[in-house]
Write a structure and sequence with these properties.
With 258 residues, the protein is α+β, with helices and mostly antiparallel strands. The protein is built from seven helices and 13 strands. The chain folds into two domains: 89 residues, Phosphorylase Kinase, domain 1; 159 residues, Transferase(Phosphotransferase), domain 1, CATH 1.10.510. Strands 1-2-3-4-6-5 form a six-stranded antiparallel beta sheet, with helices on one face. Strands 7-9-10 form a three-stranded antiparallel beta sheet. The protein is globular.
Length: 258
């Protein structure tokens, strides 16, 4: 794990977390003092580095900056800068203090129950996330990792989609590594496990359907008697329309979704 005080012109003021390919920091921009989020290429698994190759990982990391940099939308996080520090690539993004995962209280043990939120609030967040995904899909981008901690909440209560490290542009696949998991357990569409390169826009709708289920019930979809329990099983103010919408979104076969 790298410990650093500055990256390029940016002063590191805290650590935000890390993923398989990168570490994220809270940083301060020069001159303005603006607080930003800074992602540094820092693969966690040495075996992963050996399989993919350092140069390929660098290309994929910078591709994330390029993909995000081309998108301008109220519900997609903005890339503010991208540079190298002594050969180490980094991406600078808008900083948000809270995520949807924080809001619903999802823990690192994802299968544990979380907090259910109001139907009104869930509708607002879902519509905003859908608008962000619509913009991505219009550009041929499949996110492939929609989950509560990749949906940030702004100070004025708007959703912003972040983390395009696993995204795929139509007709392209960044990294083909046998056994590489694309997406997050419980939220990734079934087709991403076997054929991640074939996952299309419907994979993102599946993930958002699982997220909707979780927001409204506090639970992940689970089988009862060989079938998935509808969300209305957990709360009485959800009617059949909600059941139909969500259950269709999380159908195992992409063709059975929207």
């Amino acid at each position: 794990m790298m410990v650093m005080r500055t990256v390029g012109r940016y002063e590191i003021v805290g650590r935000l977390g890390r993923g398989g390919m990168s570490a994220a920091y809270k940083a301060k921009a020069p001159v303005t003092g603006r607080i930003v989020a800074l992602k540094v290429l820092d693969p966690r698994d040495e075996l992963f580095v050996q399989l993919a190759g350092e140069e390929r990982l660098r290309q994929v990391f910078l591709e994330e900056a390029r993909v995000m940099g081309e998108i301008s939308h109220p519900h997609v996080a903005k890339v503010l800068d991208c540079d190298h520090d002594n050969g180490l690539p980094f991406i600078v993004l808008e900083y948000f203090a809270h995520s949807l995962g924080d809001f619903i209280g999802e823990s690192y043990r994802v299968e544990r129950p979380s907090r259910a939120i109001s139907v009104t609030k869930a509708c607002v967040y879902l519509l905003q996330a859908l608008k962000g995904l619509e913009r991505l899909h219009f550009s041929g981008i499949v996110h492939r990792d929609i989950k509560p901690f990749n949906l940030m909440i702004t100070d004025d209560d708007r959703i912003k989609i972040i983390d395009f490290g696993l995204s795929r542009i139509r007709g392209e696949e960044k990294m083909k590594i046998p056994g590489l998991q694309v997406g997050s357990p419980f939220y990734a569409a079934p087709e991403q496990e076997l054929h991640p390169e074939k996952a299309d826009e419907r994979a993102d709708l599946y993930s958002l359907g699982v997220l909707a289920y979780r927001m409204l019930t506090g639970h992940l979809p689970a089988e009862e008697g060989g079938q998935l329990a509808p969300p209305s099983r957990y709360r009485s103010d959800l009617n059949g329309s909600w059941d139909e919408l969500i259950m269709r979104s999380i159908a195992k076969k992409p063709a059975d979704r929207f």
